[in-house]
Amino acid sequence: MSAETFCGTVLCFFIYSFLGWCCECVYCSIPAGRFINRGFLNGPLCPVYGFGALAVIHCLTPVAFSLPLLFVCGLLVTSALEYFTGWLLETIFHAKWWDYSNMRFNIRGRVCLLNSVLFGLLGVFVMRVLHPFVGRMVGSLSFVMLIWFASALTTLLAVDLFLSVRTALQLSGKLDALRDALEDARARTDAVIMEKKLQLEEQRALPLSDRIDRLLEKGEGLRLHERLNALAGSHNALHRRMLDAFPHMQFPRSPASLDALRAGVARMRAEKKERKDAKRDGK
């Protein structure tokens, strides 16, 4: 592969990553009623779409003459890529970033038949309609422009990837800290319950949140409550963006930790809205 061809391929990767990001944002923002910056990265890119498009283009060219073969092979290639991406993110960050478990014909919640069919159709569209246009557009650029575009975009991607990985690791660490705090809450409440043998069965039947509230009423869980609130409330804009981007994210090691963090984000947003409304009414 020549340097010019390589730079053109890199530029195609960024174009398809951007188009994929646009599709994901529209798909998620419309039901939510607000804009959601979808994707693992902070910038307007979904690299899995870029890799998927390049995989389809380079692997499926031999079967491009047949629409049925193109559809089936596109379905298989993109589904394999989505499954691998889901597995890789789960392995590195100990969190499940999307989950299709409630969809029919899914494989470990990482891929499902409906999405695979849609990706297969998208593969046909890319091969027959989109890539010929993108290829002509990229081919019209000079070698110097290709180098500049490819170099600049790759540098920005590297910076964004570093920031996004750091954010994801911080989020994973925060969830681990919340898990430890919740386990501490369970241990403390169980100790109190053991002292109240006459109320043992009644207390154990209560959910964890109610048990913590009982401790607060007795003045025994104030520090614990402050610790939980501090952990759940200590998040920044990048953490909130990532939680918004993956509304079905799961933390298998402690689902309650993720629930507590999402509750902290919701509480912060509600308080911010109240302050904004109060300021507007004051005017």
UniProtKB/TrEMBL annotation:
It comes from the Bacteria. Keywords: Membrane, Transmembrane, Transmembrane helix. InterPro entries: CmpB_TMEM229 (IPR010540). The chain crosses the membrane at residues 6-27, 39-63, 69-90, 111-131, 143-165. Pfam families: ABC_trans_CmpB. This is ABC transporter permease.
